[in-house]
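Incident review: delayed structure delivery

Summary: a single-chain prediction request sat in the queue longer than the usual turnaround. Root cause was a stuck worker, restarted by the on-call engineer. No data loss occurred. The affected request and its eventual output are reproduced below so the record is complete for anyone auditing the incident later.

Affected input:
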Amino acid sequence: MSLVAAAGCSSDAPQSTPSVTERAEALSLIPDGPQPVLTVGSFDWNHPAIRLPTDFHTTVLYGDGTLIRFFLQTRTRMAYATTSIPTEQVEAILRLADAAGLGDGVALPNEPSPVEVVDGGWTVITRRSANGTGRVIVDQLGSDNDQSSDRRTTLAELVSALPLGDVDTWPTMQIERWAVESAGPLPDLATDSWPWPDLDPGTLDWKFNDAGVRCAIVTRPDWEFTSDEAATLAGVFRRPLLPSERSCDDVFSWRATLAVHEDVSTPDGLSPPSV
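Output delivered after worker restart:
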């Protein structure tokens, strides 16, 4: 009887089974590979103690539904929370990204705020697809000006679609491994240009990419940010390793995916810091 019943139930299954077209669409939406499929980074002038390289964004979504949010547990200590969302939700988020033009795999023009802002902040959104990695920088996203263009409206919907409202309920993980990056020559430990006096740069296992950026992996749990770190202008940064990264080769690969070749300051056309 159970086999007959099971067979009877199976006749209704095609109604809820994705079609070949739907499966193909899902495969085209979510590219192969271990790197994130979407990242969102918000930058402003309210955290002078934190300086991060341009290849690091605080919200990271993977194709398998893993969603990560980096945050400050204290003013100087960073951690991350993680959860998993269903494939259908990943697809819906990526469709919004594609509707905004990010699926074309190119860097889109900056989206400045239609209203002049004295103390600005901006959001960087990237979407990795089969076409490459699309990127856009939006000034003052999440403000009352999001209806000023169709693209701004869609990007605001995209960010709102990320289920970050319940991030406080996600499991929290401490950061143990970091990538130290520098686009310039190795600083002298005896000068003020090196931000970590207790870490000798000469002892690190530096790797280089073709653009001359150096990288070293440092294992240091609960590595707090310091005032010296914020003050240095040497172009030396550190960031947490992403779950998909194990080595500097992975860091360089991610920089190449994002088309990041050097660290930059305020993007052109966006609101300057207050003085």
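Verification: The chain is about 20% helix and 20% strand.
Action items: add queue-age alerting; document worker restart procedure.
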